[in-house]
Amino acid sequence: MNKQTTGIHHITAFAKNPQQNIDFYVGVLGLRLVKKTINFDAPEVYHFYFGNEQGSPGTIMTFFPWPTARRGKIGGGQVGTTSFVVPPGSLSFWEERLGRFNVEVRKSMRFGETYLQFNDHEGLQLELVEREAGEDSKWSFGGVPADKAIKGFGGAVLFSTVPDRTMKTLADVMGLQKVAEEGDLVRFQAAGDLGNVIDINARPMPWGADGAGVVHHIAWRAQDFDDHEAWRTHLLASGFRPTPIIDRQYFHAIYFREEGGILFEIATDPPGFLVDEEFDRLGEKLMLPEWFEANRGQIEAGLLPIEVRVLEEDRQ
C-alpha cells in the first residue's frame, strides 16, 4: 500500500504557565486561540489549540501548559525546531515586532531561504520563513494585521537518534519526497502547501527529555476517517505498532514512535473545531468532552484563570 500525507496536521508541545503561553502565541505571534479544553488523559491540565481563524489543519500549534512541569531538554527523539510560514515581504515586520517584545532573533539561511529564528518564553525553538504557498490567514489580533499574519506551519526540523531510520520512515511510510541536502541537513517535502517542508539533521542526536519548552509530538494529516483507518493498516504492514484509533473530539488520532524516537501521530482533518462552538465564539469557553461534563466544577476549580488579551506593547 502506498500512502502519502499532505503534511503536518498539528504540533503539540509542553509549557508551564498557561497565561504566559496565551500571551506569547496570541499576544505576540497573533495566532487565534481556537480551542480551550483539557488534556483528555490528564484533565487537571489545560490543552490550548492556536491556529488561523478556524484552526485549519496545517496551522494548529497546541500546548499542555502544566504549572508544575519541569524544564525539558531539546534533543533526539523530538521536533527540534517548529517552522511557521508568513507572507512574502513580512519578515522585516516580524523582526521589528519580536524585538519590541524583547524576543531575541537570529537570521539564518538554509536551502536558499532566510529564516528568522527565536525561542518562546519557555525556550521552545521557533522560526519564521516567507513563502508564497499556502492560504493567507484572515485573522488579525493586537498589532498583527492579517496581511502579515502567520499562515500556518512551514514545517519542522527533526532531531533523531537514528536519522537514517527516521528518513526511511518519512520516505517509505509517510510518503514524503527527499528533495535536497545541505551540510548536515536533508530536506523532505510533502504534497500539501502548508506544513509540508521537513528538514532532518542527518547526524544522530543525543536523547532529549520531555518538559516545558519541548515538543511532545508531531501529527500528520489524514484526509478523512476512511483514510485514517487505511493509515493504521499501512503502519501495521510497515512493522509499526500504532495505537487504536482514539477520538480526540476535533479529530481522530493514532500514535506510533518511529525508530529515531520521535512520537508521530496521524490525525484526521475532520471534524474540526467548529463541531462544538460557533466560529465567532471559538476559544471562549472551556470545552469538555461529554464524559468529563459531570466534573466540570471540579475541573474548572483546579485550573488557573486565563484570558486572551492585547499586550501592553500593542496598546501604546
UniProtKB/TrEMBL annotation:
Q: Which residues form the VOC domain?
A: 7-131, 152-269
Listed SUPFAM superfamilies: Glyoxalase/Bleomycin resistance protein/Dihydroxybiphenyl dioxygenase (SSF54593)
The protein's matches in InterPro entries, at most eight in alphabetical order, are given as: Extradiol_RC_dioxygenase, Glyas_Bleomycin-R_OHBP_Dase, Glyas_Fos-R_dOase_dom, VOC_core
- Please give the PANTHER family that the UniProt record associates with this protein: RING-CLEAVING DIOXYGENASE MHQE-RELATED (PTHR36110:SF2)
Q: What's this protein's name?
A: Glyoxalase family protein
| Species assigned in the record | Brevibacillus fulvus
